[in-house]
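Input record (one chain):
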Amino acid sequence: MTDSSRDLAGTMLQAAFIGALAAGCFWILRPFLLPMIWATAIVVATWPIMLFLQTHLGGRRGLAVTVMTLVLLLVLLVPLGFAIAAIAQNADRIVAWSKSLGTVSIPPPPDWVVRLPLIGLTLAGQWQQVAGLGTGGLSARLAPYASTIVAWFVAQVGNVGLMLVQFLLTVVVAAVLYSRGETAAGGVRQFARRLAGAPADGVLHLAGQAVRAVALGVVVTALVQALLGGIGLAICGVPFVVVLIAVMLILGIAQLGPAFVLIPAIIWLYWKGDTTWGTVLVVWSLVVLSLDNFLRPILIKRGADLPLLLIFTGVIGGLIAFGIIGLFIGPVLLAVGYTLLVAWVTEPDAEAIPSDTGAKRRSEERP
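The corresponding structure, as predicted from the sequence alone:
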């Protein structure tokens, strides 16, 4: 009885020590967790590209890693440089626009607003109500929102430095993973096998598929929509195109879509009286917005042989739960959980989960 109590006390002390050690390591690594997660997602999603470059560069891993690292740096520096240049070139217009807000007045609604189906009368009524406030009433209504927007903008500007540091850390970690990818994957596989045994290979394979599916389906679709939307805005004469492209890209990744930029641009063109270009932008916007219906499903199915609803649920739920990084965490967690649940329901034996090689063989044998 004494030996049993002594063993129990020793086990509890060991568990407490291991828990304290894990908590301490987590606390030390906490500032680096987000860059490490981002770097892992980027490397997993772009690993085939890196191998392609390595093959066409004479098998030199170092040169391929250098190219991939420079591309990641350009992803940050090029949009940031364009945004800064656009703001600098239009600084006078921005200042004049901000000063004119205090004297802005809304004219009565044009006739075409009333003729809009279903919402015309309601929209015209609301428009007329706002126009009736006059300059002073409208300024009083906008003042609280303006102060909130200014406070938010100042807070975001203060976070730019931290964001740049995290991105640079992400690039550094990604470069290390590119150069030692096989070693890192072997360590993760060995750790997973210690936890789950042989089925861990299949789970890790599905996790990688989920990351690539999100990178292909969500990010590529958002990029294509942002670029096409920017082309339409530039052709129709809408200002600040570079900034609007960046906003559309962020909205597309956040699963909100470019409509929040394109629709106000259409309204602005009609407001100016450019009905021809407004109509052109309406048609172009319908084409851009329709890409969600066929391009994203095709890309997601190319990235992973998983239910489309599961990927979408993981993307949106992960975004709400974890922020922007949840775009990758959510689908991975749901893919792993879904696979384990299906294997447990269909075959009680845990060995039923296919290994990495078995999963690849099945996918190759399918017609």
